[in-house]
Amino acid sequence: MLNNSIHYRAGNLFADEISIEEIAEQVGTPVYIYSLKRMLHNLERIRSAFSVLKPEIHYSAKANANLAVLKTLVQAGAGIDAVSAGEIHKALLAGADTAHIVFAGVGKTRDELRYALEKQIGWINVENVGELESIQELAVLTDRKQVRVALRLNPDIAAPTHRHIATGHGAAKFGLSIQTVRELLRRQDDFPNVSIEGLHIHIGSQLHDTNATRQAVETVLEILHPYPTIRTINIGGGLAVAYSAEEPIPSWDDFGAAVTPLLKDYQVILEPGRSVIADAGLFVISVLYTKEQGGEHLLITDGSMAELIRPALYEAHHMIVPVADYKRDKRLYHVVGPVCESADALGHNIEIQATVTNEKLAVLTAGAYGMVMSSNYNQRLRPPEVVISPDGQSWQVARQRETWADLVSHEQ
Ligand SMILES: *Cc1c(COP(=O)(O)O)cnc(C)c1O
Fold it and tell me: Is pLDDT of 209 > 70?
């Protein structure tokens, strides 16, 4: 959606002080563009919504792991929530303080855990009994006395089968059941090199309700009641972003207000991803062809599901707007890509001015779960990523467009 950074000036789309047309002309399309100013503003809005709690904010790198994005957030005081060793590697390259990196994830490999221990990563969020056993073993092997962990609770799943899950993999995907968390807390002495210092919840992404979060926090507090020395609660990410003007979402202040009275006496960690970067990002594409078929108007663009899979994968809706708005009459379009899949569309029944070949469009709110989920499907080249500086005045290519050499670089 449009916002303070992504806006029109005299009919031309701008990101801060920069014309989108200018970037698209110089770099070509398709291209991702991120306003670092908007991203930092979002970080501040989240901080202020939870200000009473003074939370540590660990940005969830899986939403957008571009190094320029990570560096800018780290410089603004954010830690990093990583879900793979690759994300830890990028967090370290971005200059993140190891104490402020969390390693989360449902299926951490032993190599990944060893890497995290060797790098003295601040927290490991444990999702499996076997994982905790591995951490204990690896702690001994790597000479670590006190590996700090949080247990990830799944407040919705009480099935006792969770405790039978083997190391790393299993049918239960999210967190540990209430019963398993209680049992592990009782068994802390079995893990002498591990220090359980917090509980973690992440009940979902794009949360449309503050009640579920509040209930989850209440469950956490009840579990922790007999353990007054455990002082940290990580309430995960999930703050919602409006993808259209009609989408009803709770404000971040509502979220803050819902949990603040409950968590006042705790050290709180937040792991926002989408809310930090989604509406700071654009995916800019060009119309290759128009087509009228079966009574429908199609815009065939140079952007596809290979670069932005959310519409194909989740039937996610993104607003799509012209880069130059000539205020022509509007019509309903299907905006589709060149990939050989009928799921390959960026939007259906999108109302846009009558549009012709070579005109550019911007897919809005594309900063999160866009580039990170892109692929080379159909041997397409991943697009470049452009960042606009935090003062809004200049821009640079933060990641180059891939080349044909990249396509074959691992096959030689
Ligand atoms: C994906 C994820 C997040 C971030 O979620 P958003 O909805 O992008 O804020 C936070 N914590 C964990 C454990 C995650 O898996």
Answer: yes
Q: Taking the mean position of all CA atoms in its chain, how far away is CA 97?
A: 20
In this structure, the answer to whether residues 17 and 63 fall within a common structural domain is no
Q: Answer yes or no: is the C-beta of 81 below 6 A from any ligand 1 atom.
A: yes
Q: Read off the pLDDT of residues 266-309 as tens digits, 9 standing for 90 and up.
A: 999 999 999 999 999 999 999 999 999 999 999 999 999 999 99
Beta carbons of 165 and 130 less than 8 angstroms apart: yes
Q: Which positions ≥6 away from 276 have C-beta within 8 Å? A: 39, 42, 43, 46, 59, 60, 63, 73, 368
| 77, amino acid identity | G
Establish if 73 belongs to a structural domain.
yes
Tens-place pLDDT, residues 63-120: 999 999 999 999 999 999 999 999 999 999 999 999 999 999 999 999 999 999 999 9
Q: Domain range for residue 383?
A: 6-35+278-407
Last residue of a domain, one of 246, 277, 308: 277
Ligand 1 atom closest to the Cα of residue 272 is 9
Based on the domain organization, do 253 and 350 belong to the same domain? Answer: no
What is the position in ligand 1's atom list of the atom closest to the CA of 204? Answer: 7
26 and 76 together in one domain: no
Distance 386 CA to ligand 1 centre (A): 24
Residue 412 lies in a domain: no
- Bridge pairing between strands 56-60 and 31-35: unpaired
Q: What is the pLDDT of residue 157?
A: 38
